[in-house]
Amino acid sequence: MVFLKNRLVEQGKAPSTINLKISLLKDWLSNDGHSDHTWITIKSIMGVRGSRVERGRALKPMEMAKIVFRCEDGESVKGIRDAAILALGAGCGFRRADIVNVRLDGVDRDNWSVRVIGKGNKERLVLCPDIFCAIYKGGHLDTLRPLIESAVYFMLKKRVEESGGGAFTPHDLRRSFATRLFENGNDANIVRENMGYTSILTTQRYDKRDRDRAKEATRGVRLF
Fold first, then answer.
1. pLDDT in tens, the chain (224 residues)
2. What pTM was computed for the model?
């Protein structure tokens, strides 16, 4: 375990990543029937200190609207589908894996909800629009071929670039969803439930309000 810790440090991994791996390894080793001395030695291995600036950002409402309107321009089938995928990311907090795993048999049309199995094999019920399939050039639908994660990734990047948006990763849609929930006055536990997490600490990493507040505060500082 010490070798793993040192190796991760040498690789420049973030402290949170290193500590998570150490914690998981400790949990696994605790069920492996070690002697008391060995287990005490394992428990004595500490994590690393430090932190990193959180990556990603939350898109502004007007920025999201511009991207969606760009998708809907011309009313093509592909554009409408892409707009709906963007809505799932920012409106429901879906990951790319969640989006491609949505299936018809999980949809409850009466309650406008869908059952989806996301990261960590966790099943949850989420409000969302309809299902997505592959669309070829010319607007031809292939209902037998579901979307794959890489297709969602490149579509989202393309749409943001077309709208003239700034730096962006598809996971920013999920950060936008969480930030909007916080901005609307919801507490961390409510946001956690909607995000499908078990940890409030993990959920709070998606709250990007402070970054915008910090920018606004520094703009008002006079040097002279």
1. 666 777 777 777 777 777 777 777 777 666 666 666 666 666 777 777 776 666 778 888 788 878 877 887 766 888 888 888 887 788 778 888 888 887 777 777 677 677 777 777 777 777 554 456 677 776 666 655 767 888 888 888 888 888 887 888 888 888 888 888 988 899 999 989 888 888 888 888 888 877 666 666 666 666 55
2. 0.48
Burial class, 88, CB count within 10 angstroms (exposed 0-12 / middle 13-18 / buried 19+)? buried
Contacts of 46 by beta carbon, 8 Å cutoff, 6+ apart? none
Whether the CB-CB separation of 69 and 82 falls below 8 Å is answered with no
Q: Residues 61, 156, 198, 185: what is their CA dihedral angle, to the nearest 10 degrees?
A: 0
Burial bucket for residue 72 (CB in 10 Å: 0-12, 13-18, 19+): middle
Q: Which CATH superfamily includes the segment(s) 61-207? A: Intergrase catalytic core (1.10.443.10)
Do residues 178 and 191 lie in contact, with contact meaning Cβ atoms separated by under 8 Å? yes
| Helical segments of 110-204, H only | 149-162, 172-183, 188-195, 200-204
Q: Where in the chain is the domain with CATH 1.10.443.10?
A: 61-207
Task: Enter the tokens of residue 26.
Answer: 């400790």
